[in-house]
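Reopening this one. Same input as before:
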Amino acid sequence: MKRRTYHMMIAGLLTATLYNTIANLSNLSVTDLDDWLASNNQTVSIQTAVRTAQEKEQTNDSAVEEEQSSAASAAGYSSLKDTLTLSNYPKKTVTATGYTAGFESTGKTPEHPEYGITFSGVPVQRDLYSTIAADIRVFPIGTVLFIPDYGYGVVADTGSAIQGNKIDLYYPSVDAVYDNWGKKTLEVYVIKRGTGKLTAEDLNHLNENQALQVFRNEILKE
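Same output, byte for byte:
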């Protein structure tokens, strides 16, 4: 017991000496040092939380890609829909229409400097993962949806007419809109909720998913 008490006293003296040394060198009070340490501990906690969230998001992305890879490589899968177990994802009923980059949908002509550029800054495209418009209060920028009979849509755009549970699906031409879509009310699946931003690199990464290239040509023909 005496030895333990002795060690505790030595530790206390060393701690006090350390505080005094730092205070003298930096012109800070002990209270200031306590505040500084608390602040740095809080910063570390915030950084840890952010890092954990990023790792979780990467893990979710990897799980989706692994599921797609396994399904696409198996015999008998003839459609993009078969590559996911859609019952694993939350769904939402929406009214979906089609749009183009043209004047009839956006009021812009090819001469306009922002022609074909979405709200997120990435160009419109119809691909494995196509750009779509949504109410970003419902589906934030970057949200990935699976839309039956259309495929994957990534929320990249918004619009004054797209309010609430409405989405607008990009097609390269008016004819493609009428031939392939029109207007439908249906259930869509939320594969990944967006963070509020989307880059061209993000979209390219999605579209280069090797497991899904077998389905890409069919989409690009529209």
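So the earlier flakiness isn't reproducible anymore. For the record, The domain at 79-220 is CATH 2.40.40.10 (Barwin-like endoglucanases).
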